[in-house]
Amino acid sequence: MNAQLERNRTILKKYIPGPAVDPIANWIYRYDFKLKIKRGRATKYGDYRPPVKGMNHQITINNNLNAYAFLITLVHEIAHLSNWEKHAERVKPHGEEWKQEFRSLMRPFLSEQIFPQDVIAALNRYLQNPAASSCTDLNLQRTLKRYDKMDGLRLLEQLPQGSTFVSGRRHFVKGKKLRKRFICRETRT
After folding, report:
1. What is the pLDDT of residue 152?
2. Which residues lie closer than 8 Å to 65 by C-beta, 6 or more apart?
3. How buried is 83 (Cβ within 10 angstroms: 0-12 exposed, 13-18 middle, 19+ buried)?
């Protein structure tokens, strides 16, 4: 057995559902990319970088994602890698070619052995027209959030209007909802 493949499996077991470990480990081996698991970033869940000057493809994924969000994000980035191998810079990063590739790579994972039924339903809706980020699909984002370790945290939508809350080191008052988002006013810093 290949030692690198086994190391990949050991690492992946900490981050993704068990039945997804072997296919993902095989993709890492086949595509020969560097997977970096990084501390949580506020602006993105993961990213893909094409090979430059003798370096391999590189994918980074945040370490603070739940197993389902981690897997979806990793497949999203592997779709970029696969798309790069087929088209290089000739297509848009989230264009139709990427959407087709992402759907194709995601399809084998849409089973109850890997995802809970509510995540499968939300993911199927999202895959009809996947966007640059799963965060833009509120239904998928809310469904995935149910599986986060909340550690006493609450979602903004769970707080009543007029409530105060802290984000980072800034204090806010929750205002009214405007379409999909809430208007919040900073009180003091």
Report:
1. 62
2. 15, 40, 45, 73
3. buried
